[in-house]
Each structure stands twice: as C-alpha cells, then as structure tokens.
C-alpha cells in the first residue's frame, strides 16, 4: 500500500500529581485551550478538552505522524512548564507520570464529548479514582492498583 491512512479517535485521561486540585476556575479554560493548541501543533485534532479540579480529558483524532507516547510526553511537559508561569500557587504543579488512552468508535464521539463537557456534574458524586477505575474496567484493562496512582 503506497500510503498510510490513520483514523483513530482516542480518549486520553490523566491527572495532576497525587490528584491535587490545581485545575481551578482561574486556570481551567486557558489550560484546556493550551492543551488543544499543543495537540494541533503536533498534527492531532483536538475534538474536546475538558476536565475537573484534578484531571483532564482529551478527545483527539490522532495523527499518523506522532506516537501517542510522544504526544503525551509533549503535552505534559509543555503544559506543566506553562502552568508554573501562571502564579505562585502553581509553582509546585506536576502531572502524574502515567495516563489512560482509550479508543473511541467514531459513532460514539458525540456521547464521549458530552461526557467530557459534563465533568463537573459527574464529579458531584464520583471521585476521579472511581471514574478512572470504571474506565479501566469498561475497557478490560488489566492493572495493579498500586501502580495506577502517583
């Protein structure tokens, strides 16, 4: 085949280190725009970026030109440096080391985007830990809980 064709929607989830609630109203909108911009710079199309106090959800159409691992490394390192410039209360900001990435059936994009938009509503009754473990279980990801959190 003379060309590479990729059409891969991915739902990426990651948290702040130790799930500290750094992502407040003061920074969330600007942070989500920054994350989306970083995706675009790497030729990945951000469909929606959202989250809550201690974590982020990205729905992206991955590029054939960059590995998921490189995308995440770049997003986290660039945004971490950027956040630390936003004031003294963010100077100790870090992302967790890992992330979750889950494929999305193109027919389910609207459902997943609605889920990301309604993060505040979801987290009235559910912690990030519970949400993340539910994703791992839904996608039958085998994991050892002692290595999931940092």
UniProtKB/TrEMBL annotation:
One of its GO terms (molecular function) is DNA binding. One of its GO terms (biological process) is DNA transposition. Residues 6-119 form the Transposase IS200-like domain. Signal peptide: none annotated. InterPro entries: Transposase_17 (IPR002686), Transposase_17_sf (IPR036515). This is IS200/IS605 family transposase. It comes from Plebeiibacterium sediminum. The gene is tnpA.
């Amino acid at each position: 085949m003379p060309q590479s064709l990729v059409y891969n929607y991915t739902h990426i989830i990651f948290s702040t280190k130790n799930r500290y609630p750094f992502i407040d109203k003061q920074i969330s909108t600007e942070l989500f725009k920054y994350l989306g911009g970083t995706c675009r710079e790497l030729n990945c199309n951000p469909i929606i970026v959202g989250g809550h106090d201690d974590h982020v959800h990205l729905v992206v159409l991955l590029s054939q030109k960059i590995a998921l691992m490189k995308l995440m490394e770049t997003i986290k390192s660039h945004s971490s440096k950027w956040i630390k410039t936003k004031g003294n209360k963010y100077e100790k900001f870090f992302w967790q080391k890992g992330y979750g990435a889950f494929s999305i059936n193109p027919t389910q994009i609207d459902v997943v985007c609605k889920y990301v938009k309604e993060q505040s509503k979801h987290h009235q009754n559910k912690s990030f830990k519970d949400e993340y473990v539910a994703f791992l279980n839904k996608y039958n990801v085998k994991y050892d809980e002692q290595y999931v959190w940092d």
